[in-house]
Structure formats: structure tokens, C-alpha cells
TrEMBL record:
<keyword id="KW-0808">Transferase</keyword>
<feature type="domain" description="Cytidyltransferase-like">
    <location>
        <begin position="15"/>
        <end position="183"/>
    </location>
</feature>
<dbReference type="GO" id="GO:0005524">
    <property type="term" value="F:ATP binding"/>
</dbReference>
<keyword id="KW-0548">Nucleotidyltransferase</keyword>
<dbReference type="GO" id="GO:0009435">
    <property type="term" value="P:NAD+ biosynthetic process"/>
</dbReference>
<keyword id="KW-0662">Pyridine nucleotide biosynthesis</keyword>
<comment type="similarity">
    <text>Belongs to the NadD family.</text>
</comment>
<keyword id="KW-0067">ATP-binding</keyword>
<dbReference type="Pfam" id="PF01467">
    <property type="entry name" value="CTP_transf_like"/>
</dbReference>
<dbReference type="GO" id="GO:0004515">
    <property type="term" value="F:nicotinate-nucleotide adenylyltransferase activity"/>
</dbReference>
<protein>
    <recommendedName>
        <fullName>Probable nicotinate-nucleotide adenylyltransferase</fullName>
        <ecNumber>2.7.7.18</ecNumber>
    </recommendedName>
</protein>
<keyword id="KW-0547">Nucleotide-binding</keyword>
<dbReference type="InterPro" id="IPR004821">
    <property type="entry name" value="Cyt_trans-like"/>
</dbReference>
<dbReference type="InterPro" id="IPR005248">
    <property type="entry name" value="NadD/NMNAT"/>
</dbReference>
<dbReference type="InterPro" id="IPR014729">
    <property type="entry name" value="Rossmann-like_a/b/a_fold"/>
</dbReference>
<comment type="function">
    <text>Catalyzes the reversible adenylation of nicotinate mononucleotide (NaMN) to nicotinic acid adenine dinucleotide (NaAD).</text>
</comment>
<keyword id="KW-0520">NAD</keyword>
Length: 209
């Protein structure tokens, strides 16, 4: 059997990058729906070390975000967490992460799971053409998200490149990390927006105060 045939039947692995400050049910539901719909063997959550598109100076320490992600996925045997970006020096670019994952999983097809809002900014990503050659993208959308805006943003790409970008509607994406941080600051409840173990960790470590 040649390498082409092997690759055609390769197992699929999902990569879910993000700041995860904090991780919440929207992230988890998106990963689980993507795992089922695209037949992913597993999903690896990769908290960013230094996110390239974030300007907040008060972003939580990487160790906190890694621990919250680890607690959040502990009950799902198909989910795992990687500290790849956190232990790597410098800004966390997706191309560097995917290249490293290609080295770790040379015989697997990689699917990068992210929000449709992030895909709208894909033109600003470092070496996005190289990214589209290395992996497919799953753009998780909120209900009511206008796919026309996504298509317009991606009109620059070839048919082959566009075929590497899939869309997936996920109702739970109405939850946001920004809202959760604001709720904690204002003393409002965050229960049921994120896993209980993550909620406990936030209060125990007085995050977002």
C-alpha cells in the first residue's frame, strides 16, 4: 500500500487553539460537535502562550489557563490538552503549532477548530497559505451568523484552499469568555456557563478580580 492510500485512510485529529481565558461550555460543545461531525479521533486543546491578536495586558497567566483547560476536559476521553504553545518562547502563531503537530502526527489529517469570527481575520494570520496546505479548518459559527461575510472574506482564495475551510453551527457559542470575565468582575453568577471545576478554580485563585 503506497503513502497516498495510507493518507487517504488516515485518522483525523482536531486541534483547538485559543486563549481560553476562561475555557467555557461553548468551546467544549464546539469541539465535541466537530469531533462527531468530522469523525475526529480526538481533539487537542492548545492554550496560547502569547496570543498574537490580543492586546489586553491583564490576560491570565498561561499556567492558570492551562490548568482550567485541563480541568474542563478531564471527563471526556476524546479530549486532551497540550502545553505546546505555552512552553514555546515568543508569540503563539498557528503555523508554528500546526507544523509541530504535523511532526508529532505525520500520518494523521489535522483539523484546526476555531470560531468563524477568527476565520474572518484569517488574512492577517502568519503564512495562512501554508496553514491551508497543512490542515483543514473547521469554522464554528453561532446561530444566525451570516455565512456571506465569511465567503466574502475568503473570496481571495482558490477553490482548493476554500475546500479546506468547513463551517459548523454550534448553538453554545453564544457564551463568551469576555462576558464571563465581566460577570466575575461585577459579582454576577457564571454557573452553568462553564464546567464547575473551572468555576471553582476561578474563585479559588481570584481570577478576573
Amino acid at each position: 500500500m503506497d503513502k497516498t492510500t495510507n493518507k487517504r485512510h488516515a485518522k483525523r485529529i482536531g486541534l483547538m487553539g485559543g486563549t481560553f481565558d476562561p475555557i467555557h461550555h461553548g468551546h467544549l460543545v464546539a469541539a465535541e460537535v466537530a469531533r462527531f461531525e468530522f469523525g475526529l479521533e480526538k481533539v487537542i486543546f492548545i492554550p496560547a502562550g502569547i496570543p498574537p491578536h490580543k492586546t489586553r495586558k491583564d490576560i491570565s497567566l498561561p499556567g492558570h489557563r492551562l490548568e482550567m483547560a485541563s480541568r474542563a476536559v478531564a471527563s471526556n476521553p476524546f479530549f486532551t490538552v497540550s502545553n505546546l504553545e505555552i512552553k514555546r518562547a515568543g508569540v503563539s502563531y498557528a503555523i508554528d503549532t500546526v507544523q509541530e503537530m504535523c511532526r508529532l502526527f505525520p500520518d494523521n489529517d489535522l483539523y484546526f477548530i476555531t470560531g468563524a469570527d477568527a476565520v474572518l481575520e484569517i488574512l492577517t494570520w502568519r503564512n495562512v497559505i501554508g496553514l491551508l496546505e497543512l490542515c483543514s479548518f473547521i469554522a464554528a459559527t453561532r446561530p444566525g451568523f451570516k455565512l456571506e461575510s465569511l465567503n466574502k472574506s475568503l473570496s481571495y482564495y482558490s477553490h482548493h484552499q476554500l475546500s479546506k475551510i468547513k463551517t459548523l453551527e454550534v448553538p453554545a457559542l453564544a457564551i463568551s469568555s469576555t462576558d464571563i470575565r465581566a460577570r466575575v468582575q461585577e459579582g454576577r453568577p457564571i454557573k452553568y456557563l462553564l464546567p464547575e471545576k473551572v468555576e471553582e478554580y476561578i474563585y479559588l485563585n481570584r481570577l478576573y478580580k
